[in-house]
Structure formats: C-alpha cells, structure tokens
Predict the structure.
Amino acid sequence: MLKVILVVVALILLTIGIVWLIDRFVPKKLKPVLNIVLWALIFFLGYLTFDSVYGEIKFNKLKEERYKTVISKLIDIRDAELAHRTVTKKFTGNFDDLIKFIDTAKFIITQRRDSTVIDEELTARFGGVETTKDIVIIDTLDFVSVRDSLFGDDPRYKTMMNLPEGIGPAGSMFTLNAGKLEDTGIAVFEASVDKDIILHDQNKNLVAKEKEVMSVDGVNGPKLQVGSMIEDVTKGNWPKNLSKD
C-alpha cells in the first residue's frame, strides 16, 4: 500500500507542477479549461490516496473481528480433540465422530497415592526377614461427562464444524484431519479454514497480501488453523491479541 500512496502523491505533486507551468506559459484563453481538468485530476488522485489508506484500515478491522469469531470455534474444536485424545489416546478427523464422542464419553477421575507393602520376593530371599517396598496406587473416584466438562448446557459443539454465521459463503465448514507423525507415531490433528473463505467478500488484492503475512503479530500463512499434521503442536497460528486462550 505504501508504494501505491507514494505513486499517487508523486502524481499529485506532478499535476500541481503542471498547473503552475500552465499558469505561467499557456495562453490565457486555454488556462481555465486546463486548470479545471488538472484540479479535477488532483482531487481524484487525492481521493484515491484517501481510499487506499482508509480501505486498508477498514479491511484490517473487519479481518480481526472475523478472525476472533473463527478462533473461538477453533478453540472449541481443539478442546474437544484434546478430550478425545485423553480418553481414546488418539485424535479423530471426523466431526460426526467427535460430536458423538462429546455426547457419550466420560472422563475418569482418579487419585494417586503412595503406599508401602511387603516385598514377598525379598522377604523370602532374606530368610523371612520382612522387607517392604513403595508402590503407587491409582484409585478411580468418579466418571464425569465430557460434554458437561467442556460445554455444560451449551449445544454449540453440535455445529462446531460450521463457520460462524455471516462469515464465508453459505455452508462453509472447517477442514479437520487427524493421524500420526511418520517418524515418531505421535498422534496429531489439524482444524483449519482458508483466509480466502473468511474474507471471501473483501478486496482480492488485500486478501492476497493477507495470505502472505509472516510476522509475530499476524496470522501467518494462507489459513487460520489450530494443530498441525506435520509437527506435534496443538496451539493455533494466531497471535495472543486475537484470543484470550
């Protein structure tokens, strides 16, 4: 955008210079018409400069508002996936399975405590001299619904696959994948949506520029995502200022 502004400003200055030259060297009969045309051009170029600056300001404001709304859904998907891994030891790449899991699964509440017991093997080895050993006992205390733990009475998880209302073309959905890293076998997942979809009704040049962002205070890359299919991470690719999480 800076290059565009500099070009427009240069054209404005050039036009003003031409007006000055006309005022000094062009015959009086032609001056009124040429002056009107050139001043109209100056105002037009000024409008283009203002529109370039203000247009990008509006775009950035709208972009952040939409990102925040989309991120809130991605956080729900991540929390559901982490619960799925806690219970099943793996992630799922299917929203229907994830919703069914939330509806039916339960967390196991356990308590860990240390204890001391007789080590029968060592006791026998030492001729009956009582020998003890330390052990850890895991007690199951209760079972808690995953749905109640994550969402309470809020049914929003049933539509977690859909983009928030008003964002993206009708019927737009997140992409969800899950699997394992080839080199380590660690379970991974990724939920994402392209910036093209989130900003589908905005200036194409600004959207293209946004897709190339690589900075600590921006959403890097062409999509908004949480998790990754190529590394062991469960965080999102957005900066802290866009989320309380």
Observations:
- The mean pLDDT is 83.
